[in-house]
């Protein structure tokens, strides 16, 4: 009987020490921003007619660019995520600032897209077979005879 009480006491002590390590200053979830931090003040500075150089001075280099015909676009992506101490990352908010330029490299328009504006794209999992990929080692040996 005393052995059971001793085991229970040790288990309770180990649990108490483990829980004491989890204080309020230690969080299991950390919040961080990936990509650019796009401020409202910086977005307000971008107006039609401005040059690409001025946009670069205000926002920095774009994360992605796109050119179609005479127009081009620069994209600045801000993603706010929460990451657990176990490595699980959850996207909480995404903002994409798109700045469109004309052929003379002047701002034509800007648009702000959120996570709700995005669309889920299914990734195709099928693969094209290559020679010898599906045969096992023994199949290859038997094939050579």
Automatic annotation (TrEMBL):
Sorted alphabetically, the Gene Ontology cellular component annotations on this record are: Bam protein complex
Phylogenetic classification of the source organism:
Bacteria, Pseudomonadati, Pseudomonadota, Alphaproteobacteria, Hyphomicrobiales
KW Signal (keyword) present: yes
UniProt keywords (A-Z) are:
Cell outer membrane, Membrane, Signal
Coiled-coil ranges per UniProt: none
Q: Which residues form the signal peptide?
A: 1-20
User: Matching Gene3D superfamilies, A to Z?
Assistant: 3.30.1450.10
Q: Which Pfam families match?
A: BamE (PF04355)
Alphabetical list of InterPro entries matching this protein: BamE, BamE-like, BamE_dom
Q: What PANTHER family is this protein classified in?
A: OUTER MEMBRANE PROTEIN ASSEMBLY FACTOR BAME (PTHR37482)
- Say which species the protein is native to: Devosia equisanguinis
Picking any one GO molecular function of the record gives:
protein-macromolecule adaptor activity
Q: Which residues form the Outer membrane protein assembly factor BamE domain?
A: 35-108
Q: Biological process (GO) annotations? A: Gram-negative-bacterium-type cell outer membrane assembly; protein insertion into membrane
Q: What is this protein called?
A: Outer membrane protein assembly factor BamE
